[in-house]
Specification:
Length: 73
């Protein structure tokens, strides 16, 4: 679990966490494609090690941005 998620949901009920998680997941699916450059896609297609690094980076950045966005609403 990412630090932003742990901090943001520490004092929430399980129902509140589920609602936020649903909103964050939707946000991530919308934003993730915008977070990857063409060069990163090409590199990921060729190099499995780079692929894992790129995926982890994009997921972390996108989830953190979405947690912040959802909590501002």
């Amino acid at each position: 679990t990412l630090p932003a998620w742990k901090t943001a949901t520490r004092l929430m009920t399980s129902e509140q966490r589920e609602n936020i998680q649903t909103n964050v997941c939707g946000c991530v699916s919308e934003k993730a494609p915008n977070s990857v450059t063409t060069i990163e896609l090409a590199t990921a297609a060729i190099d499995p090690t780079a692929r894992a690094t790129i995926v982890n980076q994009v997921v972390s950045e996108t989830v953190n941005a979405c947690v912040a966005e959802v909590l501002r609403k």
